[in-house]
Structure formats: C-alpha cells, structure tokens
Amino acid sequence: LVGFAFEGQIHSMFSYYLSHYFGIVDGKLPSSSAVVSNSASSFSNDNTAANSEEENRGFLNLNPIAAISSLGAFGIGGFLGYIFYIQRKVNPKKINENIVSKAIWQFLYNRWYLNSLLYWIGVVIQLSFYRKIYKYFEGMFMTEVNPAFEYSMIFMSKIAKIAQTGNIQTYLYVFSAGIIVIAMLLLI
Amino acid sequence: MIDLFSTPSLITIVLGSVALFIPVMDALNKEKGSKNKVYSAISFGALALCLVIVISRVLFGETIPALSFARNGVITDDVFGAFFSVAFIIVSIMVTVSSWSYMKKKSNHAAYYSLILLSSIGMILIGYSTDFVMLLVSWELMSIPTYALAAFSKRDPISNESAIKYFLFGALSTSIIILAMGIVYGLTGTTNIYDSIISMSNLKTELMPFALLSVGLFIAGFGFKMGLVPFHMWLPDTYSGSPTTVATLLAAATKKAGFAAAIRIIIIGLVALNVHWSFVLAIIAVFTMTAGNLGALTQKSVPRMLAYSSLAQAGYILIGLAVAPFAAAGIAASLFHILNHAVMISAAFIAAAAVIIVITGYNIEKFKGLGYRMPITAIAMTIALLALAGIPPLNGFWSKLLLFGSAIDSGHQVWWGPYLAIAGVLNSGLSLGYYIWIIRKMYMEDGENRIRQKEPKPFIAVLIFAIGFMVIFGIWYGPILHFATMASPSDITQLMHIK
Questions:
Q1: Within 10 A of B13 (CB to CB), how many other CB atoms are there?
Q2: Which residue from A40, A46, A154, B369 lies 20 to 30 Å from B96 (Cα-Cα)?
C-alpha cells in the first residue's frame, strides 16, 4: 500500500529512464529518425506524458485512494496495538469470546485463507480428479481391456498355428485356392 | 553375345570354378580327416573376391545406373543386379563362415560348400537376368541346390520332411512360372523381358485376360519363394526343419531372389498392362505381415519363430512394391529393407545356430540366462531382434520408416495408402511381443547355470560383423539408402507411357 501511494513518483522515474536512455515514450519504440540525446531539452520533451499524468495526481504526487488505505490500515493496527499492549485497557483474550471478532481475527491470522484456497484449488481438487482418472482408466481400461487385447491376439495366433497342419495336401489346397483368388482379383 | 568381363559373368566364372573345384579336390584327396576348414576358407575367399568385384564396379561407375533391360542379351550389368548381388554375397559369406563350426561334426563338407556357391550363382544371375529363359535357368540353379541343402541332415526325419515339402512346392512353383512364361511367349513371341513388356502394353483387348492370367501365375510362382500369403505354408516347416545355417540362406537370400525376379517382371509388367494391381499387392502385404506376426507370437521354437518373422518382413517389403506407382521412393524403400533384412535375419538365425550347437536346444526355454552363458551371442540376438522390430537407431528403423512413409505419401493418390502404413506400424508393434519375449528370456530369467560357455569363434566373427553392420548403418544409413535409390527405377510411372 505504501508502494501504491508513491506510484506516481515511481512511474515518473521509470518514464524518464526509458525515454532518456531508450527513447521509449508512452510505450512506443522510437522511429528511425529519432535520436536519443542526453540533453535537458530531450528530458523535458520526453517527460510530457509523465507530466500530464502528474497533473492529475494530488499532493506530493500521491494516489489519494492508496494513501488513505495505507494510512488507514496503519492507523487501525497502531490503535489496536496501543490499546491491547501499551495501555492494556482491553484483554486480547476477549477477542475469542465474541464470535464476530474471533472470526475476523482468524481470517486475518490465516492470511485471508489464501493458502488454504490455493491448496484446495491446486492440490485437493486436482488430486481427486487424477485419482478418478486412475480408477476408471488405469483400473478399468488398462486392467480389463488390455488383457482382452492380449487374449485376442493369442487366440488368433493359436488359430494361425492350427492352420499350419503340417499336412502337405492342405498346403497344396491353400496354394491352389490362392492362385484362383489372385487371378479373380486381377480379372475382376 | 555375353560379355565375359561383365560383373555377372565374372561372378559366375569365379564362383562356378570354385564350386566345381571343391568336390574335385575332395575326390582327389586321399587323406582321411575333415577338410571343413579348408573348403570353408576357399568358399569365403571366392565370395569375398566377388564382393570386391561388384562393389568396385559400382563405385567406379562401370555398371549401368538404375534398372535396365538388355535388348540383345540375356543379362545386363546394372546397379539393380549389383545391389542384389551384394546382399546375396554378404549372406553367403555369413553362412559359409558360420558353417566352419556348424558343419564340424557333420559329413559331406565338399558337397555342402559347393551347393552354397552354386545356389549363390543362381541368385545373383536372377538379379541380372533380362530374359525369361535365363531367369528360369537361374531360378532352378538357385533352387535345386537348396533342396539338397534342406535335406543335409539326412538322418534327421524332420529335415527330410522339410526338404520334401520344400522340393514339392518348389517344383510346383517352377512349373507355374514356366506356364506363365509360356503364356507370355505365346502372346508376345519373345522371351526378352523388355520386348515382352512393350508388346503386352500394346496387346489387343481380347487377349488381355491371358496376360492377366500370366501375371497372376507369376505372382503365385514368385510368391512361393517370397513367402507371400497364401503361398507361404511350406515356409515355417522348411526353415525350422532345415539345418539352421541353411535356413539362414533360405530366409535371407533365396527369399530376396524372389523379390528380385518379382520387381523385374511383375511390377514392370503390371505397369505396362495398366492394371489395378497395387490394391491386390497391398491386400497380400497386409495378410502376409499379419499371418507372420500372429504365427510367431506363441511359438516355442526359436527357428520357427524366426521363420514366421521373416514371413512378416516379406509383407513389409511388399508395401513398397504395392505403392511403387504412387510414391517415388516405393521401390527404393523395398530395396533398402531387403538389404537390411538380409543381414538382420542372418544374424538372428546364426545366433540361434550358435545356441543350438553350444547348448543343444532350440526351444525358447534354452535361451534362459543366455546373457550370462553366451554374452556375445545374446547381444547379437538382441540387436538383431530390435533391428527387425524397427527400433532406432538400428538399420531396420530407417528402412521401415521409408516403407511406411512411402505408403503415407501415396495417400494423395490412393485411399488405402495410409491404412497400409497403419497396418505396418501395428504389425511392427505386434512383432515386439515375441522379439522382446526372447530378449527377456536371455537377460531377465535365470538358466540352468551361469557358467560361461565357449562361443565358437567363427560365429563370434560373423555376429560381430552383423552387429557392426546394424549399428553403423543404423546411425549412418546414407550409403545404403543411396545404393538402393541408385538401384531402383528412376520413375516407374514413366513406364505407364510406354503405350
């Protein structure tokens, strides 16, 4: 928030750097005729875009919303710290007695539950998805369909072995049938 | 007239000479005792020399770029053939070196290595063939030695049964291919592949059903070797019943030879016929990869599991061929995956072979605690399986990425392109079900003991090479991708304008 408060200052610093050393103004690359010079006049010209933005800024080029948010958070935290731990007017343990304050405390303590959210989205949901894939693909398809393919190939192989009778008359019959089939395929 | 100094001719001369020399040397050898190491070393030397010839010719620009057809010959010296030659020779080298230990206690070493070399010649010539008759002869040269190799454990009834099934289906598929070639010859009057494609593109309407029938028969015939559904039934039995090093050759090399022939004939021919064949290939690709992965899922035998896995990988490769007319990188992606898969599946099978030799068992329970007992084999198996699954930064990831990317790219022309990519990705995930299962057994379960077993050095050498290939070309995939791009037709859709 402090950084956002001084966003305008940081913006003008980088704008000057880019325009002065690379000739980049408003995110556009310089044309071939543009010459980047290290003079005060080029500095003042290149900073026109930054200057126009600075005109819209408030006191000390601060972003008012960011400045108020930052100072407000500072103030709230400082006030609570002063009450609880310096003046000791309120016992911190009383936070747990009120449901609302306890909920707020836990929300802040668990860093807005961001870690838990990321864990659920990135780990838990994906793991359950992959486990389902494993169960239905690996478990069903690979375990049941793969053997079916294997047994069918072995079955066809056994048929091929049975066809190889060793009987020469069978071989001659197949040979003759083959000639007839080839001749028919060519003639038709 | 065949140029004797062309790459396929030189390879045929070198490998053919050694393949014929080894049995003669064995017959003339009067000393008793195993010459397994000698024959393995001679075969390795011949294959290494051929690899140097192929790579140097490509690097020095002495091969025809991309895929070409010879109008006045039966073979052509192009980068497409060189690409497949590199894949076949690398696999053959890995098989030959690992056989140094695998064949130690077995007999007929000379015949074994000779048959591997002869089959390699056949595979390599398939990649270079531009004539139907040459393709057929190469196909048979590749297949017949592998029939004998599949039955090499002649006292093992499972090996004999697998070889019989392989032989019967091989003979059936060859007869279907010959029938298809006969139909094409009857329609076009030529056995030259390019001339027949030109003729078929200008075919009369009433003859079109015969042309389509021939294409269907080609798909069936080559699909047998590629392991496409529904022509795949023999594959798991044969790969699991054969000696594991022979299964490596079948899974990593002969399967790719089927793709080499398929790309030259089926894809190019179907483009000329302007038939909606892509959807048929896409359906076959989806069924193939799904059947392969489902079949492997509950297997207890590791070689059988890898056999089904190679079935699934063929489905992935077919994705690139299915989207070839609609995606610029379709065929390049398939070629990229062909070379990567050749090394990956070879490493996996050879690691399984090492376990079979040392621990004498191929059940997946035998792989428990392998990380302690055979650490290098376990690491190689782990890297190979992860590369097959397409885990970065291994080489399999990049080729699968390109395959599925091509399928998605084709989506702006055909509605089923992205769905094909989805099927590929789902199947890749499904494949992890059994790849990771093996890795778990090796590292996370305890075996009978934690005693470190002696891993045979030839296996270690091959597996370390494979690990280096998969890791280095997983990080630095540029050279292989560039090689695959060079080997693929520059624009398959240009063939649509032959008419």
A1: 14
A2: B369
In one-letter notation, the amino acid at residue B369 is G
pTM: 0.79
The contacts of residue B184 (CB under 8 Å, 6+ apart) are B132, B196, B200, B211, B214
Sequence-distant (6+) residues with CB within 8 A of B257 are B84, B88, B122, B123, B126, B127, B139, B142, B225
Element (H, E) at A116: helix A114-119
ipTM of this complex prediction, to 2 decimal places: 0.83
3-state DSSP: chain A helix, strand, coil percent, rounded to 5?
80, 0, 20
How far apart are alpha carbons B352 and B240 in whole angstroms? Answer: 11
Q: CA angle, B302 as apex, B117 and B115 as ends, to 5°? A: 10
The answer to whether B473 touches B479, Cβ cutoff 8 Å, is yes
Cα distance between residue A39 and residue B305, in whole Å: 86
Q: Cβ contact (<8 Å) for A179 and B220?
A: yes
Mark out the alpha helices in B266-329 (DSSP H runs). Answer: 268-273, 278-297, 302-322
Residue B478 and residue B473: Cα distance in Å, rounded? 8
Contact B162, B242 (CB under 8 A): yes
pLDDT in tens, B315-359: 999 999 999 888 888 889 999 999 999 999 999 999 999 999 888
Residue B362 DSSP one-character state: -
Q: Exposed, middle or buried by CB within 10 Å (0-12, 13-18, 19+), for B412?
A: exposed
Strand partners of residue B158: none
Mutation site, B160, B275, B298, interface A, largest A CB count within 10 A: B298
Interface test with B, best of A182, A184, A188 (most B CBs within 10 A): A182
Q: What is the pLDDT of residues A116-171, one digit of tens each?
A: 999 999 999 999 999 988 888 887 778 888 888 888 898 999 888 888 888 888 89
CA distance B88 to B257: 8
Cross-chain Cβ contact A182/B220 below 8 Å: yes
Q: For residues A20 and A28, what is the distance between their CA atoms, to the nearest angstrom? A: 13
In our burial notation (b when 16+ CB lie closer than 10 A, e otherwise), range B137-170 reads bbbbbbbbbbbbbbbbbeeeeebebbbbbbbebb
List the single residue in B209, B220, B284 with the smallest CB-CB distance to A187. Answer: B209
Q: Test B297 with A157 for CB contact under 8 angstroms.
A: yes
